[in-house]
């Protein structure tokens, strides 16, 4: 039996359509330099407060906050529920729950937004709880912060825990909190990105998560 912390975007659900639409709205609203369509995927996973200044270095802290506000204006009204659960994911969660694993979500999404998605998809039937970034996206931002918060709130043992995610920040957050890592390549990050960030075991579909966990347990 293990404790499993799942990232949301790119691990539980394909949220690309809504996030990219919100990013394009933000770019237009704030008069930012437009990006190629393929470049928007880099924002899925990492916290916006960290990623925006990397892509648009000219933004100061105030402009970053205004850009995030513009993103949320669109995303919360129109983009949030464009996410789609990955095929086979819920069946896999049912099997893991029946095996006695403790299931949680640990996402860099603001926690209030994450809870809306949990309710929308009725994920509380599978997950014990969902933990996200602080709603101000200032005091608890990175996956390291979120996972530390989740471990503290759940009182779960890091030595018996696994971070399951599709991006480097998921793996880094897991390493920083001394949990095992399981990378998924069906989301937005490549195998190379995950391996470079420390993942030793990768799976290419939700149905393969149990076999990936078995490899970690050896």
Describe what you observe in this structure.
There is one protein chain. The protein is α/β, with parallel strands linked by helices. The protein has two domains: 145 residues, Rossmann fold; 64 residues, Orthogonal Bundle (DNA polymerase, domain 1). The protein contains nine helices and eight strands. The strands form two sheets. A six-stranded parallel beta sheet has the order 5-4-1-6-7-8, with helices on both faces. The chain has a two-stranded antiparallel ribbon with strand order 2-3. The chain is globular and about 50 Å long. The two termini are 13 Å apart. InterPro entries: HAD-like_hydrolase_sf, HAD-like_sf, HAD_2, HAD_sf, PGP-like_dom2. GO terms for molecular function: protein tyrosine kinase activity.
The CATH homologous superfamily of the largest domain is termed: HAD superfamily/HAD-like
> Could you give a short account of the major beta sheet?
6 strands, parallel
Shape: globular
Give the percentage of residues in beta strands. 15-25%
Order of strands in the sheet with most strands:
5-4-1-6-7-8
């Amino acid at each position: 039996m293990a404790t499993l912390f799942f990232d949301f975007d790119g691990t539980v659900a394909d949220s690309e359509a809504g996030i990219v639409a919100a990013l394009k709205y933000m770019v237009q609203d704030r008069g930012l330099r437009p990006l190629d369509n393929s470049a928007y995927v880099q924002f899925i996973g990492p916290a916006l407060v960290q990623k925006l200044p990397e892509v648009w270095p000219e933004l100061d802290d105030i402009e970053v906050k205004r850009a995030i506000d513009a993103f949320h204006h669109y995303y919360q009204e129109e983009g949030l529920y464009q996410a789609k659960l990955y095929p086979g994911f819920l069946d896999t969660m049912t099997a893991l729950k029946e095996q006695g694993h403790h299931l949680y979500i640990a996402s860099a999404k603001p926690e209030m937004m994450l809870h809306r998605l949990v309710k929308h998809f009725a994920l509380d039937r599978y997950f014990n709880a969902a933990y996200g970034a602080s709603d101000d996206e200032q005091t608890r931002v990175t996956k390291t912060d979120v996972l530390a918060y989740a471990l503290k709130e759940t009182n779960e043992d890091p030595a018996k825990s696994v971070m399951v995610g599709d991006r480097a920040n998921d793996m880094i957050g897991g390493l920083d909190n001394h949990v095992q890592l399981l990378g998924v390549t069906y989301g937005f990050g490549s195998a190379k990105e995950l391996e470079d960030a420390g993942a030793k075991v990768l799976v290419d579909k939700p149905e393969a998560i149990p076999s990936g966990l078995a490899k970690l347990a050896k």
